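Hi R.,

Here's the chain you asked about this morning:
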Amino acid sequence: MRQTMSTKSCIILLSLLIIVVFPASASYAGDKPLTTVYHDVHRGGVEFTLGNSKYSGEMNSNDTYMVDFEVAVPANASIKFARAYTYWVWSKKGLEGIFPLINASVMHHGVVSPFSPVLRYTDTKGFAARYDFFSGTDAYDLSDLIHENGTYSISLRNSADDGRTLCLQGIGLLIIYEYQDEPVIEYWVNEGCDMIYAEHGITPKMATTTTYFKGEVDAEKVSRAYMITVSPSGGLTQGAKQTRNTIYFNEKAEVTPILGDIIRILFGSGKVWNDMYMTGESVQIALDERDVTNYLKTRDNFVSIQDSGDYMLVTNAIMVLEFEEEGEANAKKTSGFELLAGILAMIFAYAAGKR
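And here is the predicted structure, written out as tokens:
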């Protein structure tokens, strides 16, 4: 009898471990991390824009959607890499989730050029329920079609003829250019589609997606570092309590604010920001760019994005490093006195808050 109970206990424990530790291939948990598709070093710059993107509403067969983009790189710069992203949701046929069929084209100076996606990333809530429809990101390489400044109009058409519909939240355009008069940059382009939502048994810790910018970094030579992230629906949900979403850069655990700042100064730890993604009913894509110069690691930097009851997709994360010119002083270095003064100020502030 004792052996039988032990066997049953093992089976129950194993079942719980499968449910809790190993999330399904599609779910509200952070289980589809973004992947690096492009990494390079050269002189130039990186730009990301949503153009005049707005929420489309439901698109039936042959309905079209268009977004205009103004490309304006410096004179004499050459566009090295151009990539478009379409962010689609609620792809369905009746009450059944189904992948969309989309025809895409770009118009420039009156010339229309069709193009096809190179990659498609998808996710769903991942459990049997109503409205378990597909959401996704389609990535398009437009490097051969965008090669000069001007207006580019990207058009998408629902080409399905079987009654399937979808909604478009917008289109993103990434432009990377080479220009000898600008600093040397190193960048990582990460993309995908991870649906996260701290509801239906998913905790905020589970509803966290992490992506890495792999490689070594000589932080002493970096004059500026910034990160661009994109989150369709980020900040849109009005029902979230207190913090809706959180960005962790090179940071894995939450600590008390004052103590956390002291640790970061002493050991060069990361940074945490709350509620950086905010969207509305019309523009439903959150685009965030922030400086991360003071929080770099020397190897394998990473960003984690967490949901706290604010349904969101995480689709893009781009890190850009700008390097100092030869002979420039490193303005980031902190003297010993400044370091000590900063620590003492934080200790006094922490002590005052305890009174």
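One quick note: The CA atoms of residues 79 and 148 lie 7 Å apart.

Cheers,
M.
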